[in-house]
Amino acid sequence: MINTSAKERHRILYLEDHITGSAYEFGPIVMDEKAMIDFASQYDPQVFHTDPEAARKTSFEGLVASGWHSVVLATRLLVDHYFLRLANLGSPGVDELRWLKPVRPGDELSVRLTILEVRPSESKTDRGVIKGLVEVLNQAGEVVTTWKGINIVSRKDAV
Amino acid sequence: MINTSAKERHRILYLEDHITGSAYEFGPIVMDEKAMIDFASQYDPQVFHTDPEAARKTSFEGLVASGWHSVVLATRLLVDHYFLRLANLGSPGVDELRWLKPVRPGDELSVRLTILEVRPSESKTDRGVIKGLVEVLNQAGEVVTTWKGINIVSRKDAV
Q1: Model confidence, pTM
Q2: Which residues of A are less than 8 Å from B72 in CB distance?
Q3: Which of A135, B11, B24, B37 could disulfide-link to A112, CB 3.0 to 4.6 Å?
Q4: Nearest neighbour of B83 by CB, restricted to A46, A83, A95
Q5: Chain-chain contact of B97 with A98 (C-beta, under 8 angstroms)
Q6: pLDDT tens-digit map of A23-54
């Protein structure tokens, strides 16, 4: 599906282009300390996300990224390398989002996407559903965050 | 649990302070168009999130907020009104996150939190698990986004 030739890299990906079990990796992208604090100050201002000193006295024993920050940084990788090519009609949601390990300042995050399910819609013949496992890894190869994403995708033969 | 008296509003909330079935509402907070475009440009740069003109030609028929933006704005409300008072040891994740309706520029989002489950840990006597349903509502009272959050929370008698 995600081929390395220049031509293939720009081809639109339809439902039929997805194969269950295929896996792809994108990244890395750096979790910068200042960006961590800025993001958390705006959206998730708990001290273990915003204040390096105060964070030392919590169960995290130091600053950790907001779990949502890790999710949206990983989303940026997914969008740049996958969603911008996907014949994407939108996402109804995600399942089983898990924050497994803390993300620390300077961590380098990569994303591994594994296609779990490819299913044509029974009611709408022009589209189908793709379910994918997203695993976010740090520079040590540890899985820090996972979720199962759902997307509605156009069928090629309907375009 | 979340009482209206000034003294009660600042009391720390432990596991025992939660009652299954209790519900609380916080907000509203405005989804500003410029903030929508800025957030999506950084984390979710798909045209229906970043470009009002191009968004008209998509199935969304106009600009819609990144689903993750709705989640983090709602999180800000939850943190300000609930998590900053919670004896919170962290969150292992969330389940069944759903984007049910588009969020448009200028929408006013509120959060309704309903306590689904309060369970002391079997292995660690100083803590327990709280599961809560988060519903994000717009100014018309429509539920636009939902998820089930999980938090590890200290027990009062263990402190």
Answers
A1: 0.93
A2: 42-44, 68, 72
A3: A135
A4: A46
A5: no
A6: 999 999 999 999 999 999 999 999 999 999 99
Residue-level length of chain B: 159
Please tell me what DSSP assigns to residue A84: G
ipTM value? 0.92
Question: DSSP of chain B, one letter per residue?
Answer: ---SSHHHHTSPB-GGG--TT-EEEEEEEE--HHHHHHHHHHH---HHHH-HHHHTTSTTSS----HHHHHHHHHHHHHHHTGGGB-EEEEEEEEEEEE-S---TT-EEEEEEEEEEEEE-SS-TTEEEEEEEEEEE-TTS-EEEEEEEEEEEE-GGG-
Please tell me the predicted confidence (pLDDT) of residue B11.
Answer: 85
> Which residues in chain A are closer than 8 Å to B90, comparing Cβ atoms?
59-60, 99
